[in-house]
Amino acid sequence: MKTLIALSPLLFVGACYTGDIDPMEQQPKLQTYAATRHFDDESAMRPLIEGTVPRERDLSDAPKVTGELVTLGHEKFNQICTPCHGLVGDGKGSVAHKFSLRQPPSLHDTRRRGLASDYIYRVITEGYGLMPRLTTQLNAHERWAVVSYVRALQRSQDVAYDSLPADLREELDHPKPKPAPEGATHGEHGGHGEHDAPATHEGHE
Length: 205
Fold this sequence. Notes:
Layout: H1 2-15, H2 18-21, H3 67-85, H4 110-113, H5 117-126, H6 140-156, H7 166-173
């Protein structure tokens, strides 16, 4: 008898409709492509209100390209993009060899040099192929900064010698010697430097 009394609440709960216990389990709603009599076109899916844009859509305009913007893009490119695209954008970054399905592309081929800047910005924003979207790592201004640096990087790797200013051509033709490391002296490690006194040999003076 005691056992029957103890089990009676469980039997009562088991006989109940689960929706009576948790009213959130069953919620009346219309599926996306379902039909309904609530609207004249009998479609549950409603057209968007005029002027509606996705929440993720970026409405910011491209900023004016300045040296400061390119410098910021250089910094962010080195932080975020170089592991795949490489320091010069050639697609030979530190992790590129781990891509078995597809290697990161070079940013200097004819196709990518011809891409519009807003397209590159959209790729950074939305991702493309194996490349994820970078909206978490880069805000809108930083993404435009990366675009400006990519353009500068592309130009730097595809400049004709004759189009360079005279001072840069002179620097390429006659590079300055690298300065000696600080603390370096002639004759280190016990050897004879080029300015050491000549050695004398006994018996030949």
